[in-house]
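Problem 12. The chain below contains 342 residues. Write out its predicted structure in C-alpha cell notation.
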Amino acid sequence: MININYVLLIFIILPFTSNTSTSHNGTIEILQEAEDYLKIKSSHSLKLLEQIKNLPQQSDKVIIRWHIIRARASVATNDLSIIEESIKRILTFQEHPYFIQRLPTILWTIGIYLRKSGYFNQADASFSCALQFTDNDRLRLFITNSQGLSARHSGQYARAKKLYMEAIQLAKKLRFERMIANIENNLGSVAVDSGQFVQAEQHYRKAYAGFQKSGRRSSHITAGINLLFVFLLQKQELNYQRLYSPIAALTETSPDKSKHAFLFWINWAFKAKMGEKIDDKTREQLQDSFIKLESRKLQYLIKKHLAQRLSISLTLAAETALKPIDLPWLPDILKCKWKPKN
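Solution.
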C-alpha cells in the first residue's frame, strides 16, 4: 500500500526543487549573456546584472562572477568607483576555487583600474602578476596590450613599443584582426609621442584598414582622425583632402565629443595652412573644443603641433593629483602573493 503522506511530500518538494533549479539556471543564463555583451555593449551588461536579485543570497561563485563582469563592464563606462567596489568584494573570496580559476582576469581588471587611476607602476605589477597565471594566448594578448598602454601613459615609449610588438605577434598568431588593428593604432600613437611621424603613418594606415574591414565604426573613426593628423604634420595635402570627407561624415554620426573636437582642430589647422583666415568666433570655438578633448595628453599634442599654426594661446589643464585609493590589498598585488611556488 502506498504511503499517502510520502506521496504528498513528493508533490510538495518537487515544485520547490524545480523552481529553485530554474531560478539558478536563469541566473547563469543572465551572467553568460552579460559576459557576451562585454564584447559588444558594456552598458547593456550592467543592465543585465541588475536583473539578478538578492545577490548576497546567491552562491559564492555567482557573486564572484557577477562582480568580475560588473568591474569589466565599468572599465568601458570609466566608472572607477564601481570598479573599486567590485574589486574589493571579489578579493574577499581569495580562497575560493573560482577566484583562483579567474585570477588572471581579476588581476588584469585590477591593473586597468590602477592605470586609469594614474598608478602606472602598480598597474604594471598587476599585469605582470596576471601573466604568470595564464597560458591562454588570447588573455595574454589583452594583458600585454594593457601593459603597453600603461607604459605609454607613464612616458616609457621604448618599453611600450616592445610590449605592443609582443602583443601584435600574439594577435597575428591568433588571427585576431580587430586586435591587430587596435595595436597598430597604439603603435602609431607611441610613434607620434616620439616625433616619428613616418612610422606613425604606417601604423595608422594599417589600423585604419583593419578597423574598416572589421566594421568597428568608433575605432575606424579614431584611426582615420589619427591618420589625418599625421598627414597634416607631414604636409601631405592630397592625402589629407582624399581622406577628410569620408572621416568627417563618419565623425558626424558619432556622439563622441572628443573626436569632434580633435577633428575640428585638425581641419582648421589644415585650412590655415591652405591660407584661410580664422575669425574671432572660430577662435572661441577652438578654445571651447580644446576643453572637450578626452585627455591631457591629447591636449598636449594640440598645443604642441597645432595651436601655434592658428596663433592661439592654450593652457593645459593642471595635472590632477593622484587620488588616494583605499586598497589594503595592494601590497599583495605588488608582491604577487599568489605566485606559484616552483
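Discussion. Residues 43-129 form one domain. Students who got a different answer should revisit the alignment rule from Section 12.3.
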